[in-house]
Design a protein that fits this description.
Elements: E1 7-9, H1 14-24, E2 28-31, H2 37-42, E3 50-53, E4 63-66, E5 69-73, H3 78-83, H4 85-90, H5 92-98, H6 104-109, H7 112-117, H8 124-131, E6 135-140, E7 143-148, H9 149-152, E8 153-155, E9 158-159, E10 166-173, E11 178-185, E12 192-203, E13 206-215, E14 222-223, H10 225-231, H11 238-249, H12 262-283
Parallel strand pairs: 1-3, 2-3
Antiparallel strand pairs: 4-5, 5-10, 6-7, 6-10, 8-9, 11-12, 12-13, 13-14
Bound molecules: flavin-adenine dinucleotide.
């Protein structure tokens, strides 16, 4: 199918882009890589009258690592996340997760900003950003504000971002210790049936910190504080992992769809969470 008619805008700076969003309200939508929005428009699941393309807006791309703080411009592509050597050292879980998104063609144009702003529970970056305790920079007509990834997602396709705000950057601390992003999908290029992001810190044989978040197991990404707490202070043995998995499962609320019934999703979730913890611990 082809999308319904729309007017195309190509502003050069953030303020002009916001001006167009303010002028047209909920009839306008930002366009980044277009790899979530355009398919929705083609399927007539979204009818947008004004598309505000961010391609020419200055200052929205690139990765900077300043001391221990990493900042990624919203228009940075998933391909750039994979090929940036500094990022691979400072936060290797980004590359591991980005490599599991779709296929190279999608990753060449799909952006990190579009992936986190979209609000699709199937997107991989939101859960990862919650695991990293990332912060999102939103710019709107009333100025700039920071929103924690863990507070950003309200329901499927509903976020803390207002219609007139643009996500300009994402920032988080460089990671230390072990990491893993584990994803189970039906076939190469598919969205997750279930996925888990895990970061673990280790001192001697003891886990001194754990952060665990999940993808596509509720209508939002899920950060499980209880799962992390179940591992902290332990030696991450079999019983500790089982306790963390049980805690994580009590935080999710999957629904039946073409990826399977609820019982199957809970089973797959348990498998990917346990695998992610085991791999992260082996790397810690
Ligand atoms: P767009 O499609 O341009 O925008 C998506 C939404 O975010 C729109 O509502 C738009 O208005 C809003 N938006 C975009 N940027 C901003 C901004 N800076 N500020 C405010 N709002 C903004 N994703 C995964 O995570 N995992 C997968 O396995 C996966 N598989 C895919 C398979 C296929 C075949 C395809 C086509 C896509 C797949 N995707 C997957 C989605 C892909 O990663 C998208 O590129 C991504 O979700 C959205 O990024 P985008 O830059 O294309 O955003």
């Amino acid at each position: 199918m082809i999308p319904a008619a729309f007017e195309y805008h190509r502003p050069k700076n953030v303020q002009d882009a916001i001006g167009i969003l303010v002028e047209h309200g909920d009839e306008a939508r930002v366009l980044a890589g277009g790899h979530s929005l355009i398919p929705m428009m083609k399927l007539r699941m979204a009818a947008i009258e004004h598309l505000v393309d961010l391609q020419d807006v200055d200052g929205l791309s690139g990765i900077s690592i300043d001391g221990g703080r990493i900042t990624i411009g919203a228009m940075t592509t998933q391909h750039e996340l994979i090929t940036h050597d500094g990022l691979a050292t400072a936060a290797p879980i980004l590359r591991e997760a980005a490599l599991q998104i779709a296929d190279p063609q999608v990753r060449y144009v799909g952006t990190i900003g579009g992936n986190v702003a979209n609000g699709d529970p199937g997107n991989d970056m939101p859960g990862l950003m919650q695991c990293l305790d990332a912060s999102f920079t939103l710019v709107g007509p009333d100025g700039t504000r920071e929103v924690a990834a863990r507070d950003f997602y309200e329901a499927a396709y509903m976020t803390e971002r207002s219609d007139e705000e643009i996500l300009t950057a994402i920032s988080f601390n460089a990671t230390a210790g072990g990491y893993s992003y584990e994803k189970q999908k039906r076939k190469i290029g598919d969205y997750a049936t279930a996925a888990a992001a895990v970061l673990l810190q280790k001192d001697g044989d003891t886990c001194t910190g754990a952060s665990i978040a999940m993808t596509n197991l509720s209508d939002t990404p899920v950060f499980s504080e209880a799962a992390g707490a179940a591992l902290t202070g332990t030696s991450v043995g079999k019983a500790d992992i089982e306790a963390a998995v049980a805690a994580a499962l009590s935080d999710i609320d999957p629904t039946e769809d073409n990826r399977g019934p609820v019982e199957f999703k809970r089973h797959v979730a348990a498998v990917v969470i346990a695998r992610a913890i085991t791999r992260a611990w082996s790397r810690a």
